[in-house]
Amino acid sequence: MIRTTAxxxxxxxxxxxxxxxxxxxxxxxxxxxxxxxxxxxxxxxTQDPDDLAAFPEHIAPExxxxxVQYSSVEEAGDQLSFMLRAATEDDREAVWDFYRSHLEEIGxxxxxxxxxxxxxxxxxxxxxxxxxxxxxxAETDEGGLLTVSGNVNPEDxxxxxxxxxxxxxxxxxxxxxxxxxxxxxxxxxxx
Length: 191
Prior knowledge:
The protein is an alpha+beta fold. It folds into two domains: 2-21 and 46-155, Protein Transport Mog1p, Chain A, CATH 3.40.1000; 159-191. It contains four helices and six strands. A six-stranded antiparallel sheet has the order 1-2-6-5-4-3, sandwiched between helices. It is globular, with a radius of gyration of 22 Å.
C-alpha cells in the first residue's frame, strides 16, 4: 500500500520534470525578456559539467554511445533529484536492457512499464519506494531520445546491498561482543 501511495506523486513529479525539460537544449535565449521579480531559471546553474560533481552517475550512468543533451541535479529535501537526457541511435530494447540490468544490479526493482503519448517508460524503485528512477524512451528519426530521472539518497555511493551487508556485519559483531562481555561480567559477579 505504501508503494502505491508513494509512487503516483513521485511518478507525477518525474513525468512533469521530463515534460518540462523536454524542450530544453541547454542554452539560454538572450532575446527572451523576463518580467521583473522573476527568479532566473535554476537549470542554467546546473548545466555546467563542473557543477554536476554530485550527479549520481553510479545510479544513472550515461548510455554507451549516446550524446548527452541535458543533465541536472539538485537537492530535494534530503534526496537528490536528477535528470539525464541523451540521444541514441540504439533501439528501445537495447536502452531498456542496459538500464534494467544496471538498476537491478544496485538493488532497484521494476515497479511498472507503461506508455504515455508515444513515450515508453519504466519506473524503478528501491527502499520501499523511497528512491525512484524513471527511464523513458521516445523514438526519433535518428533513433531515440532517452531520459533517466529520479529521486535518490545522496549518501548512496554504490551498491546499497553491499553497504547494508557491511553495516549489518559490523553491528552484529559489536552486539555479540557486548553480549559476551556482559555475560562474563555477570558470571564474575555470581562467583
